[in-house]
Design brief:
Radius of gyration: 31 Å
Number of helices: 3
Order of helices and strands: HEEEHEEEEEEEEH
Shape: elongated
Low-confidence stretches: none
Strand content: 25-35%
Distance between the termini: 49 Å
Mean pLDDT: 82
Strand order of the largest sheet: 2-3-8-7-6
Structural class: alpha+beta
Protein name: Collagen triple helix repeat protein
Number of strands: 11
Organism: Chitinophaga dinghuensis
Length: about 180
């Protein structure tokens, strides 16, 4: 019996020594192909200063000559908002409801508990705002209120599509992830 315990202990010791994780480094693999040179502005955020934005009434003409205001609209020029950026970038618009020295900033679109609603739509070189109240920039005692700023955040890496990959098939996974053997 003691020789069986000694033999078992010797077997475990040899097994543990042979399972060492350290070893010589393998050979260096071949270098992959060089990719195309990226756009130097890729990932650069484009933003405006705080802008004075005037809204105009959106009206309808009623029978009898009455004119009703149904909302307010404004257009912000965004000359760097290209067709390419429209399909790859995130465009954000912010409203400072207070003044520059004591900002209270909201991200648009905005739906407030008081019923105020400001919507945003973007097109080539334009940001359109539509509100159910006049949200124009105004000046009170020489201080500006309700200024707007936009940011264009370009995408710089396209996400992989959620293509149907058979995760149980190594060859499919290897191809999908671009793995080398």
């Amino acid at each position: 019996m003691p020789s069986l315990v000694l033999l078992s202990g010797l077997f475990i010791l040899i097994f543990m020594i042979s399972c060492s994780k350290e070893g010589p480094a393998g050979p260096t693999g071949p270098a992959g192909p060089a990719g195309p040179k990226g756009d130097s502005n890729s990932g650069t955020v484009i933003y405006s200063g705080w802008l004075d934005v005037p809204y105009k009434p959106d009206t309808v003409h009623r029978i009898g000559g009455k004119i009703d205001t149904i909302g307010y609209f404004a257009i912000i020029d965004a000359p760097k908002l290209t067709l390419d950026l429209l399909s790859t970038a995130e465009v954000k618009v912010y409203l400072n409801t207070s003044n520059p020295s004591d900002p209270v900033i909201y991200s648009l679109p905005y739906v407030g508990t008081s019923g105020l609603n400001i919507q945003v739509s973007v097109s080539k070189q334009k940001i359109q705002l539509y509100a159910n109240g006049n949200m124009s920039t105004f000046t009170n005692n020489g201080i500006k209120y309700q200024q707007y700023r936009y940011m264009i955040v370009p995408g710089n890496v396209q996400a992989r599509s959620a293509a149907s990959v058979n995760w149980s098939d190594y060859a499919s996974v290897k191809l999908y992830l671009g793995l080398n053997d």
